[in-house]
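Appendix C reproduces, verbatim, an entry submitted by the partner laboratory led by Prof. M.T., so that reviewers can inspect both the input and the predicted structure.
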Amino acid sequence: MPAGDLLTVVVDPVRLNLEALLAPRLPAPVVAGAGALLDAVAVAALGVLLAGAGRALATARERNGDSRRGRVVADALSSGALVVAAALLAWIVRHPSAHFHEVFARGDHLAFAVLAGSALARAPLALRPWLVTLLSLGFLCQYSGPPAVALALAAGLTGFVAVQCTRGRWPWVAVLAHSAIGIAVYGICWRIRAGNVLQALKAYGLFSFLFLRQISFAVAAYQGHAGGVASYLCYLLFYPGATGPLGGPEVWSEFSRRNFGGRTSPDYARGARKVVWGMLQVWVADRIPMSVDVVFASPTTLLAWTNSLVLFVQVVLRGMGFWAMIDATASFYGFRLRPNFEGILRSRSPSDLWRSWRGTLTNWLICHVYAPLGPDLIDHLARVSRFNQRADNPTSWELQVHATPDFLLQMLRDRAGNAVVLSGRNRGKIDRVQSSLDAGINALVDKPWILEAADLPKLERALDTAEARKLVALDIMTERHEITSELQRELVNDPATFGTLVRGTEADPGVYMESVHNLMKVVAGAPNIRPTWFFDTDEQGEGLNDIGTHLVDLVQWTLFPDQALDYRKDVRVQSAQRWPTMIPRDQFRRVTGQDIPATLSAKVKDGALEYFCNTLVSYAARGTNVKLNVIWDWEAPPGAGDSHFAYYRGTRARIEVRQGTAEKYRPELYVVPTVAADKAAVLAAVQKKMAAVQAAHPGVGVEDLGNELRITIPDRLRIGHEDHFAQVTQRFLRYARDRSTLPAWERPNMLAKYYVTTEGTALARRSPPRVAERRAPK
């Protein structure tokens, strides 16, 4: 039990008698553990009793508040609670604990928190943050020292004034002001250090925690979420979790929403649970006989590691226990803190450990989801939940969901970050991109950005806005990170292997790609449900609009590495055709869970939806003939799946990706010599090239299959589609941090890409539907 606790007056005689009774019969460690258990049980029991008393007091007020006599009784009870609270506070001040965090494990402090929280619940709403601020100032002054508190408070108020004076006008002034505050305070701490090292450390520690809160407040203010001076000071100085090894730098937007959104009441049941759980963990931690000295004195490396792990468990249990007591104090005051030090021992990765150890810091990097309430949002959240709960390398996404019909306006008003990911319905997406860029937000956007050729000027304007405002607007081209695509690009641009590019003709092109996807996919025995709007080509686009975006991107990324294309001069769309995949009503219900909606009734023929999702387009890029075939089948045969077929014709070899039956529907890369007599030279060139790319793609090799060569790719390089999204995101964030790293060719090549997809779609619509021939091997 911490020193100074008034509860020791009651518990100490009982504990001493218990230890005297057990000492002759049991070893000393067991006797000490029994005494400590008695202390822990006493504090836990007191916490439960106090929580019950607090709840009873609140209930009595509610029942007696309707009559005059009842109000008199309620006021008398409140006055009595205040008198007792004041007496307890006086005792706590006169009998301090050795360390700040030990205050929260004291029985007298718990009693004070319950009684003070009861009084706060009846205080006027405007007065409540001021009362908590004064209380926090008192505790912080006692344990950090008046000089440290004065310094931190002066720095915070200076930052508050800077934010209020510059908000929405000169953000750089606020940045400079906060930088100057930090430098000045650290300089003062350095000066204090010469005379009193301990006081300098206290000032430095307190300021470091509170300054993180100040920065969060400043960021929120520029997002339109500032508060008044009373709520600001309460947030800045709120002493549970304000400093020390268990300090938690709360985020202003969350703290204010939880605690200043209206009148809040003490949560006695939650507080009682936290007290019991916290005291149990602290008691267990204290029973673990381990210390830093023991670790350093370990005679062997193995024993040192073992002792280190035991010490880690001890520290974790103490941290979780004391944080539970801190959380209980906040609950008794009617405040809620964000979880800290929870589930540490269940962590399965370093990121899990960090999120558990420092939950409040983790929330500085949180994902905000803005969408209308409906099946799309629910499906997205369910997908995130599955990622968080998967057994293999689970993620730890933290979401704040804003479900509202005007989700875009809400996102722009909140401006919860400086980067947005836009996905979902394709029609109108370019307008959402433009709005985000106009608001100064970097945009990572799923394809396609536009569906019609008429929207090409909108795309150009959005890219111009990004350029002018030094922002990054990038579309999500995951296929560039597919290992077979990367190696195909390397070989196509290796003259010793590929030779020179064969330009071909429209009928026999130099580049051909065929991508086959399936509308109905069964995952874990259940259909993969698609939204009904997916089948509305006015909303989603046709095959070339969607999947075709990836194919066009791969062609120009492979043929013209690091080169800019001018779609007005370098690209010419020659021909295009389309054809539908017919979807009967029963199949539509199977894939969507719904009947064909009325909005699609005009596209229903003979009881089946005419879904134009297939497109063949021929075009020339700098004189090279390219043909792309985008196909959506209904369902793959048993054991089959989506497939990708792509070849580039060179004078020495054809570089070809296949993903058919022979490859077990896994993409494989082949090199087919154009002339059989050149095979030995081509093989030597491929071997040399594979040796040259080992640094980027370790373990790749080549296998001689007779008439052709197969590039062997280790399984560790065959990462999944979700990992490709992570790679694109990392590239986007790198560009956002330093826009000078964004390649200059991305902008013109995006225009060229969407010129092909929109012009090709428009040309196909002007022709009668006609099924295209497939060239991929079966």
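The longest strand covers residues 571-584. Additional entries are available on request from the coordinating office.
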